[in-house]
Amino acid sequence: MAKSPQLDHVISLIRARAAAPRKTLDDERRLYESMVGSMTLEDDIQTDRVGAGGVPAEWIWAPEAS
């Protein structure tokens, strides 16, 4: 058992994703999006959509994180 219910949840999502059948990169993307789409962010978490060498990306940071 993990140190928090949130970490337990993430671990179960990763295990389910690893067991899911996938054949294409699009399958992989759909599985990843369904995994992270079920997670919520705390109110103090900040995000910023950015470009990383022409690839859409997102910075996510928490207060007091280095």
Quick take:
By secondary structure, the chain is of the alpha+beta class. Helices cover 42% and strands 21% of the residues.
Helix percent reads 40-55%
Strand order of the largest sheet: 1-2
Tell me the count of domains.
Answer: 1
Tell me which oligomeric state these chains represent: single chain
Q: Could you name the ranges where pLDDT drops below 50 across 5 or more consecutive residues?
A: none
Radius of gyration, rounded? Answer: 15 Å
Written as H for each helix and E for each strand, in order along the chain, the element string is HHEE
- Head-to-tail CA distance between termini: 27 Å
For the biggest sheet, the summary is: 2 strands, antiparallel
Topology summary:
Elements: H1 5-19, H2 25-37, E1 46-52, E2 55-61
Antiparallel strand pairs: 1-2
Tell me what the structure shows.
The protein is α+β, with helices and mostly antiparallel strands. It has one domain (about 5-60). It has helices spanning about 5-20, 25-35, and strands spanning about 45-50, 55-60. The protein has a two-stranded antiparallel sheet. The longest helix has 15 residues, at about 5-20. It is flat.
Structure keywords:
flat, 66 residues, alpha+beta, 2 helices
